[in-house]
Amino acid sequence: MCGRFAQYTDPRRLARRFEILETEIRVFDARPRYNVAPTQPVLAVRLDDEGERELVALTWGLLPFWAKESKLPYSTLNARAETVAEKPAYRQPFRKRRCLIPTDLFFEWRAEGTGKQPFAIGLQSGEPFALAGLWDRWDGEGQRIESCTIIVTVANPLMATIHDRMPVILPPSTYDVWLDPKTPLETAKALLQPYAAEPMRLYPVSRRVNSPRNDDPSLVEPEPQTKALF
Asked: What is the CATH number of the domain that holds 186?
């Protein structure tokens, strides 16, 4: 699945990479993040009311617009690609409110002996990439909460060495199609495939990433005397 990731690329660089006008940056916390955890704010790219891309901060863990209270459910951190178009929490966002989650690395854990070893996964180029996401807007109790979920699919051969699922990584050529609410649902769903393994890298990192209280550059560095496994 996807329970932690990193967003440390400067928002203005992200704006250029995702073709967002400087005037369409709506972020509230621009500091580098090396250990983004559930229920925290994350940066996301979506379309505004005029159909232009904007960079915004959303809470990680989707709160459906129809929820009776503002409590964020941990069960909506990830949406499964196989059922995202049918599940009540995701059905409307999948139709109308798709987004991109800019990401530098994401983390996954592999059971080893009596513990679990965390790994960082990203692109060999070191460039940020986009995870497929959905967002929703909840109004109630005198507040507005805009939140998101990350879509996951089956693992590619690289990810399968540590886990059977992975977040959906979208190539830049698909961004317009994914974001456009007019895209046919079958076309959007067809994009939810495992990313190719060849451009990716995977390496072990410090177990300090296990605690969301830790958030510093050392968390994305390879463990001492280790190299990328693939």
From this structure: 3.90.1680.10
Q: What is the pLDDT of residues 152-179, one digit of tens each?
A: 999 999 999 999 999 999 999 999 999 9
The pLDDT tens digits of the residues spanning 51-98 come to 999 999 999 999 999 988 887 766 899 999 999 999 999 999 999 999
Instruction: Check if 108 is active-site.
Output: yes
25 within a domain of the structure (yes/no):
yes
Write down the catalytic residue from 2, 24, 54, 148.
2
| Residue 2 annotated to the active site | yes
The total number of structural domains that make up the chain: 1
The catalytic residue among 99, 108, 146, 148 is: 108
The answer to whether the beta carbons of residues 112 and 155 sit under 8 Å apart is: no
Residue span of the structural domain in which 118 resides: 4-220
Express the helix, strand and coil content of the chain in percent, nearest 5 each: 20, 40, 40
